[in-house]
Structures are given as structure tokens and as C-alpha cells.
Amino acid sequence: LQDPDSNQPLNSLDVTPLRKPRTSLETFKKVGVPIIAAVLSLVAIVVVAVLIKVILDKHYFLCGQPLHFISRRQVCDGQEDCASGEDEQECVKNYPDGPLVGVRLSKDRSTLQVLDPTTGAWTSACFDNFTETLAKTACGQMGYDSKPTFRAVEIGPDQDLDVSEITENSQELHVQNSSGPCLSGSLVSLHCLACGDSLKAPRVVGGEKASVDSWPWQVSVQYDRQHICGGSILDPHWILTAAHCFRKHLDVSNWKVRVGSDKLGNIPSLPVAKIFIPEPNTMYPKEKDIALVKLQFPLTFSGTVRPICLPFSDEELTPATPLWVVGWGFTEQNGGKMSDVLLQASIQVIDSTRCNAEDAYQGEVTEKMLCAGILEGGVDTCQGDSGGPLMYQSDQWQVVGIVSWGHGCGGPSTPGVYTKVTAYLNWIYNVRK
């Protein structure tokens, strides 16, 4: 029998039954949905794992060998709670005052001076036979590993130090004992690092918005992504700030440094390798308020990321010398909020006798501190500015002070008190070495 409308016999054995093609919706249900479900499950597992890790990291520290958790409060508490002591390894370190570094630079044209250990006297370096190797050694003694530059400058009529030829022995400069006259009649002017230059000169006075172009060495020192203190770039590896910034949090891994911006936004921060503070002075707890932060990776300098110069060893600032200070600190005493843009103010050196008067600090300001502000009040540093630089411009900008302490903010007769950087140059050189 045959269907009249078909050529196919009705009883044909090789006829395949017609199957509807699978729709894209069915394919998606069968293949896509399980894949999406698997991916979402994986994402959920990862998110949960990350959240657990964040929560654990916030409250606990993992000891190895044997593996176990200890409370975060036990980290950097001076007691080794892990068997191998790793809970006390990545902590802020006390660095004692080291031996006297035998080289220094004078404000007289950045001339190099070398210590004669036999007499304890400083001697100016004669330019005779002075070489690039000697220049590198001198800078190395001060903790610089950059390429130095040096030139000859004539011995001045008011030169008050002996002049001697310089030799080197075991990575240190020495005064030649049999040194004759300085035939060149010149001293060595040495620069270890190009520093203290900014793209833009500051023009406004008193708590005004600042530009990173004016202060390319200014950094934000942060803990758990929160701005805690200011600081300043000394060289590609090192940041100068205040010791009291680290009183509450001694674990190095959560500290970061943000460079190259005048806003406290979400710009990525740089990881920290080490933090050093001096051993505290129990007699004068406000002294030694200085810290050095070593970055994990060296900075690349640019228009907005540059170092500031350290002061010369003999830099003495007389009262009324104009200075600048910058920071993101509170804009009002006992209130207001942290400024999210960098502010700058022009202030001046205040005589420490005036600062120690009965209506002021009553003798609390020591010779290792510097008073600066406006005696009438109104312009001052405040909480959050701590650790930032107090700056003086001679040929280049120098960091002469570190924002340290004070009574209130901007009040009359109690100006800001700053760590005097010249008092700690030897400590800085030793730590960086």
C-alpha cells in the first residue's frame, strides 16, 4: 500500500521518525544553567573564603610550625607567642643612637667635613686628589646610595676649620695625618642627591589649599587605609615621619605610604618593609619623636614625587625665620574633620625662651625641639598633620622639623612644637646605613 501523496511505502523499515530540533532555550536550560550555577557557587565560595580570611586577619595571626592562631593583640607585644617568634618579627623596631658618623655637610656651600677621631675635631675636606670614589664613600656613610656630584669651592677668608686631604679605608673617610697645605686652595662641595626642588613655588599664606607640585615630598602615612600621619620623602627608599604615629599599631604589614597626591582619595598606597624609631627617653617622653619608614620598593621620582633635603649639620634658625608647614590635619581644634585636600601655611620660628614661658610650655620644649607658628595664633598644625615636614628654603627646601606636639591648635602663645631634625642627623645616617 502506498500513500497517494507520497513516494515512500508505508511499511518502509528505514524511515527515521521526525525529531523536533532543540530550541536555544532548551540548550541553555540543559547546558548554560548548570555552568552558571557552578560559576556562581565558585564565586560564592571565593567571596566567603576572602571574608573569612579578612575577618581572621583582623582578629587573629597565624603561627607556623605548629599551625595555630593567636590573637592580633599578641602581635608585636614584646612576647614571642609563636614557637619561632614570627609574631614579633615584622614590628616597629627601636633603633638605638649609633656611633658618631665621621662625615657631615656644612651650610657653607654644602662643603664636606670629616671627623678626626684622634683629636675629636672636624676638618674641612681639601679638593686635592678628591675622587668620585671618595664622594660615594662619604654619601654612603650618610646612608645615600645615589650617584653623588661634587665640585671645588674656594676656601673663604672666614673659614674656621682646619683643611686636610682625605683618604679612604674600609668604607670610611679619614683625615690624612701627614697632610700638607691644600694646594688647590679649594674645599669639596658635595651633593649626595638632587633634592628640595619643586615645580611650583607656594604663594598663599595661612591654611590655604596646597598643590603636590609645590610639595612633591609630602606623603600620607596610613594604617588599614586610614590616614594617620604626614611624612616626607628623603630618598627613593626612606620616608621621614614622627615616632608617636606608631604608638597604637606596631605591626608593620598594615602600614602603607601614599605618595604623589594632594588628596586623601583612593590612590594606591605603597607597602612598607621596615619602621624604625629611636629608643624612647623616659625622662623626656616628648623627645625623640622621629621615625624612618623603609619602603618595600624604591620610588620612581617625577614632577609630583621628589625628595626633600635634610638640613645641614650646622643649620641654625634664628627667631622669625620664615618656614612652611603642610598637612591634611583637622581644620579646627576639638572638632571639624580631617581635611581631604592638602593645606599649607606660612609660619615662623619662635624663640624657645618665649615658648617655655609660664603662659606657654613652662620648660617642656628642649633643645632637640623647635617652636614655630604665629604668636597671635590662628595658624598652626593640628591632629593628623603629625609627622609632616616643617620646611625652610635656602638654596633648596630642607626638612628642618617634624610636626610633633602642642597644646591645642592655633591658640595664642602655644605654637606648634617640632622635632629638630639637625639633632637627629646622626641617628638618620645610622639607620639608613
Automatic annotation (TrEMBL):
Annotated PROSITE patterns: TRYPSIN_DOM, TRYPSIN_HIS, TRYPSIN_SER
Any one Gene Ontology cellular component term annotated for this protein: extracellular space
Annotated GO MF terms: serine-type endopeptidase activity
InterPro entries: LDL_receptor-like_sf, LDrepeatLR_classA_rpt, Peptidase_S1_PA, Peptidase_S1_PA_chymotrypsin, Peptidase_S1A, SRCR, SRCR-like_dom_sf, Trypsin_dom
SUPFAM superfamilies in UniProt: LDL receptor-like module (SSF57424), SRCR-like (SSF56487), Trypsin-like serine proteases (SSF50494)
Entry protein name: Transmembrane serine protease 4
One record GO biological process: protein processing
Keywords per UniProt: Disulfide bond, Glycoprotein, Hydrolase, Membrane, Protease, Serine protease, Transmembrane, Transmembrane helix
Peptidase S1 domain mapped to chain residues: 204-433
Regions that span the bilayer: 31-52
